[in-house]
Specification:
Elements lengths: L1 H29 L2 E14 L5 E8 L24 E4 L3 E7 L20 E3 L31 E6 L5 E6 L4 H6 L3 E7 L5 E2 L2 E2 L2 E10 L1 H9 L12 E4 L22 E3 L4 E9 L5 E5 L4 E6 L2 E9 L2 E3 L4 E7 L16 E7 L17 E5 L1
Parallel strand pairs: 1-4, 3-8, 11-14, 13-21
Antiparallel strand pairs: 1-2, 4-6, 5-7, 7-8, 9-10, 11-12, 14-19, 15-18, 15-20, 16-17, 16-19, 20-21
């Protein structure tokens, strides 16, 4: 009887181990490890009015964020940096490679600076928070001040909440981030085409930001700038400004990520993200109201409606825009149905760039 009992215990234990192993395998299959390789790169950046300035940003070698082969040429930097997209529960690894600054003036002192990634809005332990200079037994001494040229570091986390997040450099943040070192991190929930349980048909990520090209050019030339002299001269949407020349390939409305296309009866999700120095963006669509359903990576218990939404640096708002058709209109002049309507920053300073109007983070709803 004792031998039989021992055998039964053994078989039960084995069954439990097999069950746990199968559950683990299923969990790993549902939430595989997601690896993203990001590289530092710098270069010249052109705006729609012809202005060219120096920027630094994160780049991906290809659309799959794969590791670049040794000696491979990296893509030119863009604003914003590539969007990282994962799901709740994914095991995320982001590998930062500091590949150096290759387009500086020889006199610039910026060539040897370190960089990090701070995943803004993610609740992470200090090791992976991207803030340099905080002693930690798990961080090599050479990385305490950030990732130096020629080195790499892997950030690891498992997202617990769906929503819209932000990532940026946290070394001398006012300088490094404002040079262009920022991008969006999107965490999806379980169901496709939903956010916080609410359905949408299309989505757009709209990154609003600022630029002082004199700051950028000073970093390129000498490596330093008195930030008390900062004066924004470009207000950007996804790294672009609007121009009245509708055929300008660098204008906001020539960008498929910024021109908001929809059809009557659809609901559009706008993920609004701001990375700025001191400007408060006040985003206003002319033909529609926006239902704010979440902010800073959390759903709102009581969504609310806005036609002008103030957003400051670091904030993210998830808003749903119902595209009503003319059959739903209550008046003949409501501007509903097929056609074009604009959305812009109603803090009117940002209706200009380089001192000229209308240039700034202006885009269009194009309803088919």
């Amino acid at each position: 009887m004792r031998k039989l009992s021992a055998l039964v215990v053994f078989l039960v234990a084995a069954a439990v181990l097999v069950s746990v192993s199968v559950a683990r395998s299923r969990a790993q299959a549902d939430h595989p490890k997601k690896i993203f390789h990001l590289y530092i790169n710098d270069g010249e950046f052109e705006l729609a009015d012809g202005k060219k300035t120096y920027i630094v940003s994160y780049v991906a070698f290809n659309d799959r964020f794969e590791e670049a082969p040794p000696g491979a040429a990296l893509p030119a930097p863009k604003i914003p940096a590539p969007t990282i997209r994962v799901k709740v529960g994914d095991e995320v690894n982001v590998v930062l490679h500091h590949s150096g600054h290759h387009h500086l003036d020889p006199q610039s002192s910026f060539g040897s600076v370190t960089h990090t990634i701070h995943f803004h809005g993610m609740d992470l332990v200090q090791l992976y928070d991207g803030v340099p200079g905080v002693p930690n037994a798990d961080i090599p001494d050479k990385l305490l001040a950030g990732v130096p040229v020629g080195e790499s570091f892997t950030y690891k986390f498992v997202p617990q909440f769906e929503g819209t997040f932000l990532y940026h450099c946290h070394v001398d943040t006012s300088t490094h981030a404002m040079l262009g070192m920022y991008g969006t991190l999107i965490v999806d929930g379980k169901e496709p085409n939903t956010i916080y349980g609410k359905h949408f048909d299309r989505e757009y990520t709209l990154m609003f930001s600022e630029m002082d090209t004199e700051h950028n050019d000073a970093i390129h030339d000498v490596g330093d700038y008195d930030m008390s002299k900062w004066k924004t001269n470009y207000y950007l949407l996804n790294g672009r400004i609007f121009t009245a020349d509708l055929k300008n390939p660098l204008s906001t409305i020539a960008d498929p990520n910024s021109l908001i296309k929809a059809k009557e009866g659809e609901t559009v999700l706008l993920r609004m993200v701001v990375m700025g120095f001191d400007h408060t963006f006040a985003i206003h669509p002319h033909a529609y109201h926006m239902q704010v359903v979440g902010t800073d990576g959390r759903p709102l218990d009581s969504p609310y409606w806005k036609d002008t939404l103030p957003i400051v640096s670091g904030e993210r708002y998830d808003v749903l825009v119902p595209i009503h058709g003319k059959k739903d209109a209550v008046c003949m002049g409501c501007g509903l149905g097929k056609g074009l309507s604009i959305m812009h920053d109603h803090n009117l300073r940002a209706e200009t760039s380089a001192g000229k109007y209308p240039r700034g983070p202006l885009t269009v709803f194009a309803v088919e």
